[in-house]
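Progress note, sequence design subtask.
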């Protein structure tokens, strides 16, 4: 499972967020579908696999849980459109809502501690049905994952504060691959990660992307992310740098295995520099993530 619910806050936690949570509470996460305790794994630095959550043999998913069905839906969605006249057959984030990470929130359609809601049962023992298929994401990662997993359903509704558009295909925008373009409107931008390692310049982390201005068949002026982590904790900065390094290695491994269409994509919300439009400044760790695969 790529994500689970924090049983104490009710927020959905993506596996990669375990990189900066210290210590990781082994009993602190529950299944998004049925509410049973799930095990956080592979979050230590030496693991090559990204952090994720696994079912505990002693605490299997409820019989009515549809997490495995969700995984099968993603496999099909990468090949064809799954939205029908009746609607989208799964659950997806339809808005970005940045909240204080210490704040306890109730996410529509997600069970809170001690509660279980589904088509199979509830905490009161009565039969209920899920009525919420849309929910609020607290980082851009689940939005970006949905964008990648459902390439034929990008007309799904999406709202990001201050960003242009009301659907995934409007809000999420790929940077120009062969030129430097000024973007007057705010988006969740995407570009492939360069294989070059990030650099520390004037107290900021500078990350080169593989899109930008080309001359004589060479990328002469790449887009760059200028990550301002001055207000972040050391753990959050380490988390972002860890993900960048893991993603850089994933891209090189995919290429070495002949999977050249699978790249490491950087998604971010940043302020384009008016004097140097190849640069985007990102100052919130929740507004940057990397995912590897086909876009």
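Output:
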């Amino acid at each position: 499972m790529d994500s689970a619910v924090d049983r104490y806050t009710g927020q959905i936690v993506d596996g990669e967020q375990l990189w900066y949570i210290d210590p990781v509470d082994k009993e602190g996460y529950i299944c998004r579908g049925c509410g049973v305790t799930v095990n956080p794994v592979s979050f230590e630095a030496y693991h090559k696999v990204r952090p994720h959550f696994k079912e505990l043999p002693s605490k299997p998913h409820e019989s009515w849980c549809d997490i495995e069905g969700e995984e099968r839906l993603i496999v099909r969605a990468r090949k064809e459109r799954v939205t029908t006249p009746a609607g989208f057959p799964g659950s997806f984030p339809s808005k970005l809502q940045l909240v204080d990470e210490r704040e306890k929130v109730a996410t529509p359609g997600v069970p809170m501690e001690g509660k279980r809601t589904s088509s199979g049962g509830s905490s009161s023992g009565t039969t209920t049905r899920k009525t919420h298929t849309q929910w609020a994401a607290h980082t851009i990662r689940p939005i970006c994952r949905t964008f990648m997993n459902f390439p034929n359903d990008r007309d799904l509704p999406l709202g990001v504060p201050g960003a242009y558009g009301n659907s995934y295909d409007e809000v999420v925008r790929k940077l120009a691959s062969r030129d430097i373009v000024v973007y007057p409107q705010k988006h969740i931008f995407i570009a492939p990660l360069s294989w070059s390692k990030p650099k520390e310049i004037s107290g900021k982390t500078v990350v080169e992307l593989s899109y930008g201005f080309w001359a004589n068949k060479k990328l002469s002026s790449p887009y760059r992310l200028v990550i301002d982590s001055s207000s972040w904790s050391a753990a959050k900065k380490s988390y972002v740098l860890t993900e960048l390094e893991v993603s850089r290695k994933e891209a090189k491994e995919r290429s070495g295995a002949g999977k050249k269409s699978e790249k490491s994509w950087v998604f971010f919300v940043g302020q384009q520099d008016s004097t140097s439009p190849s640069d985007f400044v990102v100052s919130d760790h929740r507004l940057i993530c990397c995912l590897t695969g086909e876009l």
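Confidence is low (pLDDT under 50) at residues 102-132. Work on this subtask will continue into the next period as scheduled.
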